[in-house]
Specification:
mainly beta; flat; 3 domains; Immunoglobulin-like; 47% strand; 347 residues
């Protein structure tokens, strides 16, 4: 996968964050963070603090953590002032443990802006977020107790079984299986191909298995599962996606650009774009823009063709151009595409 494509995929994941959601870290200390969406909710009854006021010049932070509708006892809750969505907490960290009601109290701490996180297992912390690339900011003021609303968290311990991670699957359909989860009322399953339209997006399942049709060409896939209780609160999800590959079908969902080669320098006249043909594609759509144009003007705005090449009937001005192709079957479903390539037209 090209570096540009990796960045685009990461940004797409970050767009799933919502206000008052949770930003997930797969071990904040090693910097391998990921983003996840949750339905973190504030309970209808407001949480009230009735303890001692903070010491002079200090502040308190009080809150409650729930899992599966009950107070989550024995969970570590952390405050930190130096937070990054990519590396987690930095600098001084303050850690408390929730009591039998899931409540926690940070007493007599220095005023300032803090990020809040909850440790859900030995490695994973969930960070309360306020949107893309940022954790929620909680301001602690001298002489006051900051009461944070009740937060519903989820665990990262759903066990996927089949297809096994990294395995091969034959045919144009797959049976997904995972372990039954205690207190699960229903599941949501998501599965994406390496290229093409999503196969499943939050598809509801009442049992711990689901059958799904795959693309009619060889392709790689990744899938994940979320668990919800009867109150529609998410209580668990997979810690990471599983992937599998189908390599026994004709053609591929990942089409190869043949010319111009990536990074090529060419003349601006008589340019031909050419890519690998898909045996099941009926149409292709080409997107290309002038990357030197501040407005990133599209030169080809999803221009549709019925063959795996396109010849310009104009001379392109000197500039760097970025382009890609997507393939569609007779039903109009996206079944493949190319990576993003670029070329430069010489003056």
């Amino acid at each position: 996968m090209s570096q540009m494509k990796k960045i685009a995929a990461w940004l797409l994941v970050l767009l799933l964050l919502t206000s008052c959601g949770i930003l997930e870290s797969d071990d904040a200390e090693n910097g391998e963070d990921a983003a996840a969406e949750t339905n973190t909710a504030v309970a209808e009854a407001e949480l009230e603090y009735d303890g001692d006021p903070p010491a002079e010049g200090k502040g308190n932070v009080f809150g409650e953590i729930r899992w599966n509708g009950r107070g989550a006892e024995g969970y570590e809750v952390k405050l930190c002032q130096d937070f990054s969505s990519f590396s987690g907490c930095g600098g001084e960290e303050l850690i408390r443990e929730t009591d039998s009601d899931g409540q926690y109290l940070f007493e007599d701490i220095a005023p300032g802006i803090y990020a809040l996180s909850v440790k859900v297992d030995n490695e994973n912390w969930l960070y309360v977020s306020s949107g893309i690339l940022s954790s929620a900011e909680f301001e602690v003021e001298a002489g006051k107790t900051l009461t944070i609303g009740i937060q519903d968290i989820f665990k990262l311990n759903v066990k996927l079984e089949e297809p096994r991670n990294g395995s091969k699957v034959a045919g144009e359909e797959v049976l997904l299986n995972w372990q039954d989860y205690p207190d699960a009322d229903y599941y949501k399953v998501t599965m994406y191909p390496d290229e093409g339209d999503a196969i499943l997006i939050d598809k509801r399942a009442n049992e711990s298995s689901m059958r799904a049709d795959l693309l009619p060409v060889s392709c790689g896939y990744r899938w994940s599962v979320e668990v919800f209780n009867s109150d529609r609160i998410k209580i668990a999800e997979t810690a990471e996606d599983f992937d599998f590959v189908v390599d026994s079908l004709d053609g591929s969902c990942q089409l190869i650009i043949q010319e111009p080669s990536d990074g090529a320098e060419i003349r601006g006249d008589d340019i031909v774009l050419d890519w690998e043909d898909s045996p099941v594609a009926v149409t292709y759509k080409i997107l290309m823009w002038n990357d030197d144009d501040p407005d990133r003007t599209n030169v080809l705005d999803f221009v549709e063709v019925n063959e795996s090449s396109y010849r310009f009937d104009i001379t392109l001005e000197p500039a760097r151009y970025v382009w890609s192709v997507t393939a569609y079957d007779e039903s109009g479903d996206k079944i493949g595409g190319t990576e993003i390539f670029d070329f430069t037209v010489r003056p």
